[in-house]
Amino acid sequence: MRNSVNIKFGTDGWRAIMGKEFTFENVALVAQAFSDYMNREYGSKRVPRVAVGYDFRKDSENFARLFTEILIGNRIEALLAKEACPTPAVSFKIVDQKYDAGIVITASHNPPGYNGIKVKTNFGSSADKQVTNAVEDFLGKNPVAKKPFGAGAPRIENFNEAYLKFLKNYIRLEEIRQSPYRILVDSMHGVADSHIERLLAGGRIQVTTIRSNRDIAFGGLAPEPIPQNLGPSIELMKKGGFDLGVVTDGDADRVGAVRPGGEFISPGIILSLILIHFVEDLKRGGSVVTTVSNTALIYKVARKLGLKVHETPVGFKYVCEIMRRENVLIGGEESGGIGFQNYLYERDGMLSALLLMEMMAMRKQSFEEILGRVEREFGKLYYIRCDINYPSELKPKLFQFLSSHPPARLHEQKVKEVKSQDGMKFVLEDDSWLLFRLSGTEPILRIYSEATSKSLAEGLVSQGKELAFNL
Question: Does residue 83 lie in a domain region?
Fold first, then answer.
């Protein structure tokens, strides 16, 4: 009964190429397996309740409809989004209306040819391996049961309205609205749409949104906020006229930024700035969570502020585990997913962008003034991530080699520490570092570096490539 395609959940959901692995037939298999899992967990006690949302990708609304038909065909109470919405809007709906789980049809930041399925738990965060492994185990076990819409099932609601109201209440909305700044928002043709611009309308702040329209090809680029995909916003920031550029990914749970002059600001720096804002401006306290691939600036800022730092593997679900068990002020990944105290157990790109604006508004300082102070105090760090297609047969050999024969020196510096929590990370004498890890959502090898000079960061990546291809 099971399709021959090997459906496997990665770092955050199952993602695959549309028309190849990601087909209506395979989505139906996943929907049935998920329904079987939900009925096993809840069916003996009560009817499970699941919220379903979707993004702007090709056929996302149709995949969501199919998934919902299978949920109600398995006697599960389903709530379907009326229109495309950010992933955090689905998480908010789950928590706000006490649903047992959620499904988001999205491939997040992946290239245009992909689509995917994210599974959300009853507390709004991404499902862990225990859940996704259980769903995988049910694949193909039972025939697909599908029931057409009708007779009040499913319920259909606008997820965006309640979510945006929640955002308004989290931030100092009027203070941001009345600030004198000019903000460029790049939605990358994703579901952030023009929400930020509409949210801040009616005050002194001037917000200009680009790439807000639905484009299933995403302009031919992956909707991921990394420099090579941000040509339009970088060019506008080079020309002047804006105090800050903020960028969200395809499903609006990740953030990036561009400073005046066109330099990309990595998510780790954004996290560091919001951390400072929370402690110094909002007088909050708590610990900090960061992934192994994030910037060393987070540790420097936390040390100065006297805050404990947890380091996790890449994946927001690992960040969330710690956020659920202790008072975490802020936690995030190098890829731009950041979560916040007294919020959902979920990352949010739009909220991250708004909090940067809130920091500017409360301090009455430009982004350049704020960032300049941080660079003077902690030093400027140069962060590089290089994604390369890497032969499958070399992947196990690479990590076996790096583990058994770690380099003693890199770029004429001694390697002082080796970390293998997620991939292989080599920390040098001056705290510069080089990291190798495999993507959890795409068939690529990622090589990261960070150093106190651009030339050293680039040199480390080049040396990393040599190591990867000269085993």
Answer: yes
For the stretch 23-81, pLDDT in tens is 999 999 999 999 999 999 998 889 999 999 999 999 999 999 999 999 999 999 999 99
pLDDT, one tens digit per residue, over 211-246 is 999 999 999 999 999 999 999 999 999 999 999 999
451 beta partners: 382
Flag whether 206 is in a domain.
Answer: no
In 3D space, the residue among 460, 462, 467 whose CA is nearest the CA of residue 410 turns out to be: 460
> Domain count of the chain?
2
**Of the residues 99, 133, 162, the one at which a domain ends:** 162
For residue 438, what are the domain limits? 382-469
In a domain, 259, yes or no: no
Rounded CA separation 137/36 (Å): 10
Residue 376: exposure state from Cβ atoms within 10 A (0-12, 13-18, ≥19): exposed
- With 0.90 as the threshold, say if the pTM is over it: yes
Torsion, Cα of 192, 330, 449, 385 (10° steps): -10
User: Which of 162, 186, 215 is the last residue before a domain boundary?
Assistant: 162
Instruction: Give the residue carrying structure tokens 């950010």.
Output: 86
Note the pLDDT tens digit of each residue in 190-202.
999 999 999 999 9
Q: What is the DSSP string of 407-468?
A: -SEETTEEEEEEE-SSSEEEEETTS-EEEEEE-SSSSEEEEEEEESSHHHHHHHHHHHHHHH
> Is 400 among the domain residues?
yes
CB neighbours (10 Å) of residue 453? 12
Q: What is the CATH number of the domain that holds 20?
A: 3.40.120.10
- Quote the Cα angle for 348-22-135, to 5°: 70
